[in-house]
Amino acid sequence: MISRLRAACALAVLCLCFISLMASAQQAATASGNAANEMPSVTTVPPAAQPSPNFDVDAATEAYLAQIPASARARSDAYFEGGYWLILWDFLYGVMIALLLLSLRWSARMRDFAERITRFKPLQTFLYWVQYLVLTSILGFPLAVYEGYIRERQYGLATQTFGPWMWDQTKFLMVNIVLGGILAMLLFGVVRRLPRTWWIWGAVVSMLFTILTVAIAPVYLVPIFNKVTKLNNPKITQPILKLARANGIAANDVYEIDASKQTTRMSANVSGFGNTMRITMNDNLLRRGSPEEIQAVMGHEMGHYVLNHIYKGILFIFIVVVVGFALLRWSLDWCLARWGEKWQIRGIGDTAVLPLVVLLASIYGFILTPIMNTDTRTGEREADMYGLNASRQPDGFAQAAIHLGEYRKMRPGPIEEFVFYDHPSGYNRIHAAMRWKKENLELYSGQNSPESAPIVPPAN
Description:
Order of helices and strands: HHHHHHHHEHEEEHHHHHHHH
Oligomer: single chain
Number of helices: 17
Largest sheet: 4 strands, mixed
Strand content: under 5%
Structural class: mainly alpha
């Protein structure tokens, strides 16, 4: 992407990346449900996982896996394996929409309409963005309904009826119109003013925008979809806050989010920067998780924070985006030389190029799927190890892995896990927890169960 051709490209690519990340986050936030009730809420340690001089890691792992009913495991396997195909169908469906906008010249017509409304370039960009986002949302609606609503209810993983689900999608669209529109105007502005180096500065602008979004999300974006309240139960908050302070996290409060109106999945996070930093857990974790599980989950989330995974993730994405822009620079020039006139695209600085940028970025992202998953999975494994050492709750970790097994295949093959898993598999997580337990049996000396072992913050 050079000159003006490259300008539109930069803008479009970043917009696409931003939308894709937001869409993934929203989908993850709205999936879950009733099948969870058929999975065991483990509150006792199985006999084979009890501490003993002859403690066997493999036997303890299998004992936890045996807690999952065969029917529930078959359903979660089918659900997760179906997701493999959805990665392909989402990609192909997106390609079809992009080609439709280009070949029928709808993209050029949306650009012409924006130019008839105003001569102000940034406003033209914003008007085009609104048209593009609304139109692609309509065209993608059938697959979105199946994937995000029908399929989730089919597997018992959704608590919303269609009306509330649709209202959440509408709010998500409005957020994307505002944030995506701002990003689009910024990126096209960079391209027009820096035609030779726009791809570098576009990546910088994208990362700064991403950092800002991450910083404001806990306080300004999450409340759009869910109610966030301060948790006032000392029995729950005090162990968490002690764990946070012992690990260098300055936190005075713990927050609760009402995720149960959308899902029964249990989750928590330590998010934000500076004054926006928050320790948050959803109400499902509070309702379904044991105290040991809550502490294990929060230790994991604190691991992400202490190990600077947010910053490392931003650096990794920055590299991915810069490389993507460099590839787009070549591929856009080639595509526009071949089909640009047919599609009535004037150059890279033309907003009508956006569907082409989305198409090329989608191909890039599809190819990078195993690499992106491996990077995320590596960070999750590190947070698991940190959380085990911080919370000292291996059985809580095993319980959490079982609950995650409600919608994740517990025991994939190695290649399957490498390609499709952005977290360690349930089997590997339980096995790692039991391995940790075996190496720390002295914590349970004189105790009948690790549940009665004191929670001692690790020395830092």
